[in-house]
């Protein structure tokens, strides 16, 4: 990992033999970024997603990280949320609470969940407002390029259709350039109503990690990473649109997810 002050490589592809190895490296990556941010800025702002990601973060709740990470300096946000009650099985908050937050000592007051008591439109507006307040007091950094929030780390899990956060292929939400947080009411994956960070926010982060595991994601990984993808229009692969402007992207994938890349069906990956 590039230490503070060193030039950062823009993107990197890490392929693992097993889920256990991936989870081990992911925990170390997050812990290192947390340490660097706390040293440089006094806090660590992280935005999470749902899906398979949370269980892959499990090793962070174990030794040594449960003791060595400075959890009191963490500020937790969500890159997307489904419009369901917080105790619903589909809630990204519930999944994160059960699988991660309840096992580490992050302060409750540093956990910024999305309001489940209002319409998705209002919830998106409220969440953007909350983030603006955190930018104003410089807990969340700010991009010098576009005034967007600059999260220390945004963690995304890619779906088999190439979606990230709740940004789905061909969806107009991919075009949203003005708002930081938007909403959709027609998600192709249930539940239909969701709140999501927009691409400008994701691409303004200091670090973005994209996780994809399993053979059912192999083609989406190929479309997102391969150099040449004949005839592909950009919005058919939201994951391909993740290109941090002034930050670093790291892909964490397992062998099955890398299988189409490995099969020699692709040109050299766009990432190192
Ligand atoms: O619906 C969602 O799906 C993606 C990917 O989920 P996975 O189970 O295929 O890993 C997830 O990252 C996103 O946050 C979520 O709302």
Automatic annotation (TrEMBL):
Q: Name one GO molecular function term.
A: 6-phosphogluconolactonase activity
Enumerate the InterPro entries for this protein: 6-phosphogluconolactonase_DevB, 6PGL, Glc/Gal-6P_isomerase, NagB/RpiA_transferase-like
Question: What biological-process terms (Gene Ontology) are attached?
Answer: carbohydrate metabolic process; pentose-phosphate shunt
Q: In which pathway does it act?
A: Carbohydrate degradation; pentose phosphate pathway; D-ribulose 5-phosphate from D-glucose 6-phosphate (oxidative stage): step 2/3
The Glucosamine/galactosamine-6-phosphate isomerase domain is annotated at 19-251
Say which domain of life the source belongs to: Eukaryota
Its EC number(s): 3.1.1.31
EC class, as a word, reads hydrolase
Q: Name one GO cellular component term.
A: cytoplasm
Query: According to its UniProt record, which reaction does this protein catalyse?
Result: 6-phospho-D-glucono-1,5-lactone + H2O = 6-phospho-D-gluconate + H(+)
Instruction: Give the family per the record.
Output: Belongs to the glucosamine/galactosamine-6-phosphate isomerase family. 6-phosphogluconolactonase subfamily.
What this chain does, per the record?
A: Hydrolysis of 6-phosphogluconolactone to 6-phosphogluconate.
What NCBIfam families has UniProt attached to this entry? pgl
Q: List the protein's name.
A: Probable 6-phosphogluconolactonase
- This chain's source organism reads Phoenix dactylifera (Date palm)
From the broadest rank down, the organism's phylogenetic lineage runs:
Eukaryota, Viridiplantae, Streptophyta, Embryophyta, Tracheophyta
- Quote the gene name from the UniProt entry: LOC103696103
